[in-house]
Structure formats: structure tokens, C-alpha cells
Design a protein that fits this description.
InterPro entries: GCIP-like (IPR026907), GCIP-like_N (IPR049317), GCIP_C (IPR049318)
Domain Cyclin-D1-binding protein 1-like C-terminal: 203-307
Pfam families: GCIP_C, GCIP_N
Mean pLDDT: 87
Structural class: mainly alpha
Order of helices and strands: HHHHHHHHHHHH
Keywords: Cell cycle, Cytoplasm, Nucleus
Subcellular location: Cytoplasm; Nucleus
Shape: flat
CATH architecture of the largest domain: Up-down Bundle
Low-confidence stretches: none
Number of helices: 12
CATH topology of the largest domain: I/LWEQ domain
Distance between the termini: 76 Å
Length: 345
């Protein structure tokens, strides 16, 4: 029964080389900087080319997977051809990504790079699966890996294509806002008066005596936490307002405007991890100093977001009111946190 094995292994040899080549492409993508583009860059042409290379890659994945899905397996010659086609498709994807000059904005570039990386990773996974599979059957893993490449290739149609970097920044801010909204709702739900924060996790019998300080909030805790909630809500409001301002006024006509949008996206990215850290420290047993530290971290990120927004082109005079109001709200809640924790210092 093993007679056909060595020949089959032999036939798959070109795939090993391809896997090596794809890993090298992936490593370059992860660390690499796109070029500055030698000719004038045209965004519509870029999107067309990117869409085409993703589509071709999807087709090559299908061809490769089908060839190894049932006997007879491809000859060494056919496998060589299939492998070359896969490698060329992936090289084309990477090449088009490298067309995208830095000047188009780092937020846009990061999104395109992530999508490109995902396609290359998917193809590596597929070649892995084929190389490791028994040669005479289509494995569940191979089906999943092929579907993975298709999904990664379809991502290109979800990339924000509006006005250059502005669309990319809108999509990045909207994603941050979604995460923060969820965190705020979860915390509000946990803080409902008299509710046991761990009620859904632990049964009373497990803990025995339930008057344990570790599992509930004291009155003092609740006072401190209401100011923290104020900061979390200010985070949500901040992202909402900045997102609306970028939609209304964001432009990507000059390097300066593109850089301002990137700065906003970068700093906004720090909001949700800071909100999460604060929320985690709010669960009992509450350590007031840890809460104060995390609140101060979040407050300083929010002040930075407001500062960057205020001095950028997305905040004409008409937007100054909310910037001022939210700056006041952040200070007010942070001062309350400080007052509640003063005796702990």
C-alpha cells in the first residue's frame, strides 16, 4: 500500500520550495517599507491592480487545492507549474502593496499591509496542509485552509477606498468606537445597583460565605467607580465626536493633512486598551491606587486625542465647543478619582 508514497512525496517537492519563498515574502512584508514609487501614483489604478492580484491568488489557491484533492495526484511537472503560479500570484500581491507610497498615509498603508499579509499567511497555511496531508484524500484541514485563502482575498473589497487616508482613518476610528462602546455597556451592566459583579460567574456554594470583600463593591468603591465610568463615557464621546469631525472635515489633499489624520488614528488606537485596563481594575477586590493609575493613564490619552484634534484641520471653529466641553469632563472626573483616592497615597 505504501508503494505510491515516495513518488507522491517527490511530486510535492516544488511545493516545499514555494513555501520557503512565501515565508520570505511574509517576513519582508512584516518589516518592510513600501517604496516611494517611481512614477506618479494613481489611487484608482492601485485599487484595480490590488483587486486583480487578490482575485488571481484566490483562483490559484483553488487550482492547487483541487489538484491535491483526489487521485491521481499531479505529476512532478504539473506540481512544478502549479507551484510557480502560486508563487507568482503572491509576488504580484506583494509588488502591488509596495507601490503604495508612504505619502498616502500610514493608516491606509497599515490596512492594506494587514490584508496583504493575511493572504500570504493563508497561502502558506494551505501549502503546509497539502505537504502534511496523507496523499490520497482531501482533508478537512485542506478545505478549511482553502476557504481561509478565499476569505483573505475577499478582504480587499472591504478596504476603505474613499479619499485616500481619510476613509482609512474613519474606518479605524469606527472600529475603536465599537470596542469602547462594548466596554462601557459591560461595565454599566456590572455596576447596576446592588448587582453582584460575579453573579453570573460563581455560585454561592462554591465560595461558601459570600460576605467576602473580594467579590462585591463597598459604598466607597461605588463612589470611586462612578467617576471612572464618567471617564469611560468621555472616551466614547471623544471617539464619537472625533469620528464625526473627520467625516465632516477630514481631507487628504496635502502631506500635512494626511499626517494629522494618521496622528489622530494612532492616538485613538490607544483609547480602547486604556479603557480595558481601567475596566479590569474596577472589578472587586478594588485596589484604589491601581484604579487611580489606570484612570490617570486613560485621562492622559484622552487629553492627547483632544489636543491633537483641536490643532488639526478636522476642528474648525465650529468644533471647538465639544473639544472644550470634553476636556472639562475628563478633568472633572479625574479630579474626583484623585479626591476619592487621596487618603490611599
Amino acid at each position: 500500500p505504501l508503494r505510491g508514497r515516495p513518488a507522491a512525496m517527490e511530486a510535492r517537492e516544488p511545493l516545499r520550495d514555494v513555501r520557503g519563498a512565501l515565508r520570505a515574502v511574509l517576513a519582508r512584508l512584516r518589516e518592510g517599507e513600501p517604496g516611494e514609487g517611481r512614477e506618479p501614483f494613481e489611487l484608482p489604478r492601485f485599487w484595480d491592480a490590488l483587486g486583480q492580484t487578490f482575485q488571481v491568488t484566490s483562483q490559484e489557491a483553488t487550482k492547487l487545492s483541487l489538484a491535491f484533492s483526489r487521485p491521481p495526484l499531479p505529476s512532478a511537472e504539473d506540481c512544478q507549474k502549479l507551484s510557480e503560479d502560486v508563487q507568482n500570484a503572491i509576488l504580484a500581491v506583494a509588488t502591488v502593496y509596495y507601490w503604495l507610497p508612504k505619502g498616502q498615509g500610514t493608516t491606509l498603508r497599515k490596512m492594506v499591509r494587514d490584508a496583504t499579509t493575511e493572504v500570504v499567511e493563508g497561502m502558506i497555511q494551505l501549502t503546509d496542509t497539502i505537504l502534511n496531508a496523507p496523499v490520497d484524500s482531501l482533508s478537512q484541514e485542506q478545505l478549511i485552509s482553502t476557504g481561509g485563502v478565499w476569505e483573505a482575498c475577499e478582504q480587499v473589497s472591504n478596504l476603505p477606498r474613499g479619499e485616500y487616508n481619510q476613509a482609512a482613518v474613519v474606518s479605524a476610528l469606527a472600529a475603536c468606537l465599537g470596542v469602547v462602546k462594548d466596554a462601557v455597556e459591560e461595565m454599566e451592566h456590572a455596576l447596576v445597583e446592588g448587582q453582584d459583579p460575579y453573579g453570573d460567574i460563581m455560585e454561592d456554594e462554591e465560595l461558601g460565605f459570600r460576605g467576602n470583600r473580594d467579590t462585591y463593591w463597598s459604598e466607597a468603591d461605588r463612589q470611586l467607580l462612578s467617576s471612572c465610568m464618567g471617564l469611560m463615557k468621555a472616551s466614547k464621546a471623544c471617539l464619537k465626536k472625533v469620528l464625526a469631525a473627520v467625516k465632516a472635515h477630514g481631507k487628504a489633499d496635502s502631506p500635512e493633512q494626511i499626517a494629522q489624520l494618521d496622528d489622530l488614528a494612532d492616538i485613538a488606537n490607544e483609547i480602547s486598551p486604556s479603557v480595558d485596563e481601567l475596566a479590569l481594575s474596577m472589578y472587586p477586590p478594588v485596589n484604589p491606587l491601581a484604579v487611580r493609575l489606570n484612570a490617570a493613564k486613560l485621562a492622559s490619552v484622552l487629553k492627547k486625542v483632544l489636543e491633537i484634534a483641536k490643532t488639526s484641520h478636522v476642528c474648525p471653529a465650529s468644533e471647538e465647543g465639544w473639544v472644550q466641553f470634553l476636556t472639562g469632563a475628563v478633568d472633572h472626573n479625574m479630579n474626583k478619582v484623585k479626591n476619592f483616592t487621596q487618603d490611599q497615597l
